Each structure stands twice: as C-alpha cells, then as structure tokens.
Fold each of these.
Amino acid sequence: MTEHVVTRFAPSPTGFLHIGGARTALFNWLFARGRNGKFLLRIEDTDRARSTAEATEAILKGMSWLGLKHDGDVVSQFSCAKRHAEVAKTMLDTGQAYKCFATQQEIEQFREQARAEKRSTFFKSPWRDADPASHPDLPYVIRLRAPREGETVIRDKVQGDVTIRNDQLDDMVLLRSDGTPVYMLAVVVDDHDMGVTHVIRGDDHLNNAARQQLIYEAMGWQVPVWAHIPLIHGPDGKKLSKRHGALGVEEYQAMGYPAAGLRNYLARLGWSHGDDEFFTDAQAIEWFDLDGIGRAPARFDFKKLENICGLHMAASDDAALLHELNGFRAATGQPAFTEQKNELLLAAMPFLKERAKTFPELIEKAAFILEDRPIRPDEKAAKALDSASRGILRELTPHLQNASWSRADLEHLMNRFAEEKGTKFGKLAGPLRAALAGRAATPSVFDMMLVLGRDETLARLSDAAKT
C-alpha cells in the first residue's frame, strides 16, 4: 500500500500570486494529484500589519484561473494561533522549551559583546537552565531548548542531505511575551495538524527547515519529506523581479496566455521528464516526481512560454478555447461577445487557433468576425482597394450569388474567374481580404467566406466595390 500523500501551498497574503509561488503551488498540486493524495491551501496571515483580504482574494483568483483546485477549506494560519500557543506550552511542560526573561536591551548587550570578541552572536539565554523557583514575575518569551551538540540533517529530495551543526542553531523564540506564536512554530504545527507528508517549497526556506525539524523532533512528530526547489531567475540569471517583466499570475492572464500553456511551461521550469517540452495535464500528473527537479535555478524565457502556449491553443478543444477567450475578455474589463459573434467564433476556431500564441493574437485573426459592416479597412488594406480592384470585386459578385457555398466550389470559381482576367487568384486575395476583414493579414479568404456565409460575404464585397 502506498503512503497517503498530503501536500500544501502556503502563501502569505501580502500581494498578488507571484509566478514563483504559482510554480510552487503547481508542483504540490501535481505531486498530490499523481498519487491520489490531497493538495491543501493555507493562507499564512499571521503578519496582521501586511496581510490583506484583497491579497488573499488575488491568490485565490490566480489559483482558480490556473486550474489548481485545492482540497477542503482554505486554512487561515492566524485563526489557529491558540493551538500554536498550546503546543509551545506543551513543550514547556515537557522540558523541550523554557521561559526566558531576558529583555531586548540585555540581548543586544550580549550581541555587542559577542561581536567585539568575534564569536557567534546567537543569544545564549542565562535562563535556559535556571531553576523555575528563581523565575521573576516579569514578561517572558518561550524559547526552544535546541540541542547544543551534534548535527541536524535535512534529508532533502532535491538538495540531497544538508547537514547543519547544532551549535549553529539558536534557542529560537516560539511564543512572544504577548502570547503570540512566531511564524516558525505556526508553520510546523499547521503542517502537522493538516497531516502534510511532503513539504515542497522554495529553497529560500531551506535554512528554516533545520529549525523547524527541531520542533518536530521535540514534539515526537513525524518529520515530513522535505523538497526545496530552486528559485526562478530572469533570462539574465538574476532573481526574477519587476525589471524582467510580469510577476503576478493575473498579469499573465491579462496578457492573454492560456492557462494550460502556462501550467505546462511552469512545470518545465526546473523540472523535466526526458526531453518532453509539450505535454497535457494528464501526462504532467502521471510523470511528475521530485527526482526530476533540478538543483540549479530555472531561467524564465518568454519566447519558450509563447511557443508552448501556441501548441496548447492549437491542441485545445474549440468550445473550451472559446470559453477561455471569454474569460480573458472579462478579466481585462472588455465587454462580452454577443451570442451571434460567439457562434461565428466557434465555427472559425479550427483555423483561428492555428499559429496563435495568445488570445490578443487570436482576436486579431478574428477581426473579420468581430468587425461590423461597413468594414473600415486599415491603411495597409486600403491600398489594395484601388479603383481597378473595386471594379474586379463588382464583376466577381454576380458569380458568387449562385455559387455552391463549399470550399471546393468557391476555390474552383475564384481560380476560373482569375484565369478569365488573365491573372492568378493570389492577385485577387489582397482586395478580398481588405473587403472581408479590413486587414492585409487575415486567415484564408475561403475560410472567412465559409464562416461569414453567402449573404454577409456578398454584402461586404458590395460595400467595398462602391466608389
């Protein structure tokens, strides 16, 4: 029987869902889904000054758009503060923690002296082994009684074994003098209480793991499997920041990237399965494991993201793509398409989605559907509608009135008409594109005619033919 896997994503609600956080959530989601496990969401809102409801909402929206559905209710870390304090008191009762009455001034004096003597500035509390009978009636913090000798080994699935000497770990504060728990304690208690078996997170937390492991061991709890993943860097090899472009997931939605494409790209950012670049969610869930995560930071590459997104758009179900296109419109504050436009877009989707990498590109290709008569050609298209071209369109229109409206018949008719005029169909294409779409670059003339239908096609040609 395989172990029951429980992973979690635990962002702080101090801003948007960062692209790095989104990848961490994705890795946790893939690992859990591939093992019939649970993927949980906890909002680490203990920093009351910086945590906001708006940021929590942005994180939830970002995860929803990315398709990373979590199991169960969202857990608020702040709401569990009473439980965190109880654990600190249990550790106090069992001798794994102690009361420390040292003031901030005393701690600073200790550190100043340590710096002057060029020794560790880790505070060594004089209260660690004090007789409880000597405790004053003053405010105190609860500190972990960390081992002073030996080593703590983090057995990490990505980084390998990481060994830290215990004399490098201080007696960290678990409970402040006002009775509030510190983040380090809260994380461990929450992960234990939520049954988390695998902690998959950024390697900026690797140093925390040693101190957190001491709490697990002090409580006699099962230590989770650690997997600390490298951070994402920009194309220049420096930590991803605003200068590299978009950071928040909602910005990628607003730029028109399909969610499936971003999921695929983020999965490949730091993890690999052979040489596979393009894959479905089902394949990612089946293939994803911790062994495939590299130790080096991954570099974000917009060109690769666009290429992957283009492949996903081309492979998408037409109705699903139309649904996501409408979601993109809503997310960017644009009005919804009418029912009639949606029907035409769905009919055109097989050729619109080819070679489009983003929804704005797809919308540009769909201009012939989204524009209403009279079509106003742009500057480049207008050049194709000179008086000679208008005359040709006037002559062509009667031939189309009785044509069978199939691709084969329309191609045959147009080629024959061009031949009669002593030219090739390619010469007719420019004026036809300008008349039907008002653009010089469009989908195939025949694709547009078939989607628009006979009446609309003839009406547009007639408008363009007028001098």
Amino acid sequence: MASDGGGDGGGKAGSSSWVVEIQNKIQQVDLKAEENLWSKQSIYRVPSCIKELNPKAYKPQVVSFGPHHHGEPQVVPMEEHKQRALMHFLNRTTDKSIHYFLGELEKVEDELRASYKALDQRWDNKDVFLQMMLVDGCFMLEILHMATAGRADKIGDHYCKSDPIFSIHGMLYTLPYIKRDMLMLENQLPLLVLETLDVAPLSSGTSRAKEITKLVLKFFDSSSDHQVQVMTAVGLHPLNLYRQSLLGGEAARSPPTKGQEDSSGMVRSAMELNEAGVRFKKSKTTSLHDISFHNGVLSLPVIVVDDSTEFMFLNLMAFERLHTNAGNEVTAYVFFMDNIIDSAKDVSLLHSKGIIQNALGSDKAVAKLFNTLSKDVVLDPESSLDDVHRSVHNYCSKSWNMWRANLIHTYFRSPWAFLSLAAAIFLIILTVGQTFYSIYQYYKPNTGESSASSSSPPTLFAPPPALSPQ
C-alpha cells in the first residue's frame, strides 16, 4: 500500500509541475512574436504524408543547397566541385577576402536562419552555418553566371576546358540535374545569400536584387516570355521566383455565366468537352494564369511536358501547401488539367491544338503524370480557376450541349456505329418518301384519266402493212 501511495504522490507531483509549466507558457503567448516567426519561414521540410507518394521528387540527386540535405551520400561527390568554385570565386575578387564575405553573411545570419524551418542542431554552430552558406552561395552564383553568360564570358576563362562542371561538356550533361535539384523545396538557398555575395558589376539604374532576379529567371528559362514584375526587394528563393515566372501576371477571368451557377460538378475530359461543343485553343501567353472560357472556347497556356515536369509541379504544390501566403494558382492549374485529362486521347487532342508539347514521347505517360500529380491534393474552395470551372460546367450542362455530346458519344465513336446510323436515317427517308408518294397519289385528282383511257397508247413499233392478194 505504501508503494502505491508513493506512486500516486509521484504522479501528482509530476502532474503538478506540468500544470505549472503550462501556466507559465500561457503567460508567454505573444501573437506578434508568432506571426514574426511564421512569416519569415519559406524553406520547409516536406511532411511524410506528402513525400510517401513520390519520395524521390523532394530529394536532391546531384547537389545540395542549404542545410537540409547537406552531407547526404548522394550529394557528397559534388562537394569538391563546390570547394573549387569557391576558390575560383575568391580568385576573381582579389579586392575582397574570404573574411569580408563571411562578415557580410554574418550581418544577415538571423534572417538566413529564420528562412529555414526545423534546422538540425548541428547548424547551431555559427561558423559551420556561415561557411556552408558561403560555399553553397558561391557555387550557385558560379553556376548561374556560367550558364547564362555564354561561352565567351570571362568566368569561363577561370576554368579549364575539361572541367567536369564549369565547361561546355559539364553544362551539357550535368547542368540539367543541377537545375532540377535547384527546384526542390527542401534544397533551397535564400536569395539573400546571392545578393550578399554577388559582386558582379551592376547595370545602370538597377539594384542587386533586380539583377539576381533576372539572373535566376534567365537560368531556368532563357526563352521565357513571362513578364515578371520587378521587385523592390530580393525574393525568397529560386523555387519562389520560378513559380512567379510561371504565373507571370494577373489571372484571366471568364465572363460571368447567366442562369445556373452551380460549380459542384467535375469538369469533363477534353474529349467529352469537345463532343459537347467546347473548342480548345492556345492562350496568348504561357502564363498559368492565362486560362479563360468564353463563347464555348477554352483557352489554355502551352506547356512542355518532360522528365522534370513531375518533380517541378510536386515541389511547387508542396510550397503552396506549406507557405501561408503563397497562393494556390499552381495547384489549381494541376487540378484543372487532371480533370480534363483522363486518357491518352485527351492528351492527343490537346497536343493537336498545340497546348501540350509532349517531350515524354507517350501520350499515355503524360495522362498518367497529370492523374498522379493531383492525388491527395486539397484544393482551395476559392480557387483561382473557380470561375473557369463554373463556366465550363454550366456550358456543358445546357440541354442542347448535353444532347449533342450524347449523340456524338453514342453514334460517332466508331465507324460502324456511324454507318449504322447513316443506314437507319437513309431507310427512314425512303420510308417517309414512299409513304408521302402513296398518299399524294391517292388524294391527287386525275383529270386526264378518261381521255387517257380512250386514246390508245403510243406504239413503239408499227405493224407491217398487209399484203394484197395477187
């Protein structure tokens, strides 16, 4: 009994201390402090519930940027190249020492740390954290300048022609993997690092933040026609900038629809929409915002689908899901495309309209890609494409369009069904014609019947004259 009492007493004492601790924390609740903490974070670890669908999509395979994947086995071979890039970077900036750059990074250390959520304890060491930022930042700058400036750039003169990374050969075979790793949410580096370290000459009338923005966007798509609004302050990270370039402007709004306003129904597949009279055409820009529906015409931006499309969209959607103020435009686009793409036939139709440029080779593979992208995706009820969704749904719900779609779906899906329909229509026309003719002959007065009967019908051959007897 004594032991039980002691156990109860220990439990009460433990519970009492926990209650006191909670009461103390209640007094420390500060909404402004919490808001300040959450608003600065922009680089997250992707939760397991998202990762388990495609773990490789969120894990860098060639190079790590930032602390989350630093030192992992698959990215360790690139570390020696990152160190060499640092040496070349410092060799060109002879007027500034390594201590200068570390000092500049130290000034913004708190902001850099605040960008990451759930940093490991090993990065509590100030020197280790700043050294990692310096090495990764210099490597990214070297990659950006080398890839966007061309062969004749002065940076290329500081690397030998056989360099495995910073050469024509390296840019051809290694750069695509580096570019893919730079678009992974967990592998982001704050653009503030690049702004702090870059010492390249500035164009007249511009700022370092603007130059970094242009440099990153040119690296991801040198032929992009997106008009990204020039920011007064540097962006969050490369993934965030790339997302802005995909959106590239205000969302196109479909005109309000009259009558039915229900948008609860799913948008049909592209083939079914086509059967219902919906026509597809390319939007004027490649912005994911440039989607509209007007007078039965659905305008969609051109998209190139290749090996990196899946990883790119998954990380963009993860960023929108985890970052409070990011928006939901990319997620809404993927969800919409999943609705209108059910099979390879839908992809083939959109490809024939120039909307999908298939670099995967198989229409079935593209259909599977979009069907898996939106798995377990939660769509905001106030989606940026809600107006388009509603307009398309209401258009297809009209009686004439539903009848037209059913007719085409039933009788025009195969040549045999069409021939059967044509034969049936032909027989119906013949039957109606015969019936009409019979009725017409019955009721039509025949005024010339008597005269016709009294007169002999004309003969085609007259009988020969009779011969008189001799």
